[in-house]
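The aim of this short unit is practical: by the end, you should be able to scan a pair of folded records and say something sensible about each. We start with the first protein, listed as its amino acid sequence and then its structure tokens.
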Amino acid sequence: MEMYRPTKAVINLEAIRNNLSAFQKRAGDAEVIAVVKADGYGHGAEEIARTAVDCGVRMLAVATPDEALLLRRAGIEQELLVMGAVPAAFVPVAQRENVIITALSLEWIEAAEKAAVSEQPLRVHLKVDTGMGRLGIQPEEAQEAFAKLASEKFSFDGIFTHFAAADEQNPALFEQQVERMNGVLEQLPEGVMVHVSNSAAALMHPSVACDAVRIGISLYGISPSPYVGEHSPITLEPALSLETQIVHIKKVQPGATISYGATYRSEDEEWIATLPVGYADGMLRGLQGQEVLVRGERVPIVGRICMDQCMIRLKEQLPVGEPVQLIGRQGDGEVLIDEWAEKLGTIPYEIPCILTKRVPRIYVNGTKNAGSPFQSNDSMVR
């Protein structure tokens, strides 16, 4: 589809492949589960899934039943694990679509057994709450859960937990969770896949890799935390950059006000440029004052960010159509997702997820593998 608005997110699939390859090497004999929930952390689940499959990934993980079905409808045939809560009504659909779902309580197991309709057993992974406090059976319920999952209605394929603090310097909670999970695994029947590591644990605690590691945020080149970023044994490659262009420019006199509320007032004669990007695109109002790159140099956003537009202050007159880098590299400069997160008082995970559907994702550096929709060095719009 023709695009008439210059604001776009560019997704470098080579960065995805490189990050994935680095984790595959670090994991050793353990396989890598690529986590593509939340539309691939805002990068595009289908495209990231296909890229992961091209790299030999056998299993993909999502958060919701709907996310799993979207991938199935897109022709993704790899194993799909739904890690979030699934209603019993989805059980027959999971059986039909060969989707693995999470058993998260003894009551859920009982309800799922009643809902199963196919002769094909329902494939499940059991979630154990070792300290996250979110979903999963308690460790002391493990033996009873194992007994219930021995029913012919189930195929008990895997067991997992989620670390709440693997990205922090203090290892106390992480070690406590490992100890609790080890207690559960001592009772585990043979032939059940075990996966406990998230991105942070895979980077900082490789000894707990088990049968597989789940790589989410770092698949996209984003560090789970500043501490992990400083100590990571892997140099991650950010896959997402955010670009736009100047659509209007004018010289304003001293004392001129910019945007709603007149929160910015020029001190001298200034060149003010307008960019076609605003909070409806995910560039939230809290980013007022954030710097962007123009010709490789940093310039500030001035005035309140509007729904569809924002303004920047330039050092000189530049032409309409001049490229502006909101996130990513331009020349010798770089704006990191981490900067946006710090400015907004949040974590880097949120930033690509808040970029709305109005911002097209442009895919570059695809592969030529059979079954892939990409051609090398070509772009694909979504």
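Turning to the second protein, read its sequence before its tokens, just as you did above.
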Amino acid sequence: MKKGEQRKQELLKLAYRMFIEKGYENTSIDEIVAKAGIAKGTYYYYFASKEATLEAVIEMMIEKDSAVAKELLQAPLSIPEKLVSVVNAFRPEKEEVVITDVLERKENIVMHDKICKKIVEVAVPILAEIVQEGIAQGIFSCTHIEERVKMLLVTSQHMFDYGNFGEKDVEVYIDMLEKSLGAKSGTMQFISQVLVEGAKE
């Protein structure tokens, strides 16, 4: 890694920690610069604004999630469990919600859409690989795999990331998931328990 890129990554990791500890709104560029021990001009060499820093921090989080998801491909899990685990890998950690919540504000809608597209771009090929493996094992039976996993990923993000779902929502989601992937009824039923446990955290 070149020295300039290394410095940029160090700044990103520092901003990430400060956003989690203090909140995005309560962290100023001056504070990041002071903590990093650099001139403000150096900061602006790497990031045009605080918003640009936020976007880069979230992209760094997605890269971290992608690495975890790829490791799950080799995990000793059943195919359905791998599928759900990879989707969960792209959800923010509990302490990271203070960062991702900023994207929900209307002034950040462009950045929000850009980040959502990035998650889909990174996650869909990994999920498609798992479904392909499931088809080979006779667990799933479907075509247009990438389109299906994209739809299921986006649905899960909107439904479950903020805990706004009821028992019927989960029931319908599981039914839709099984039918979309051509799985036997009950194959994905364990998801309801995963969601209940997640809601308790």
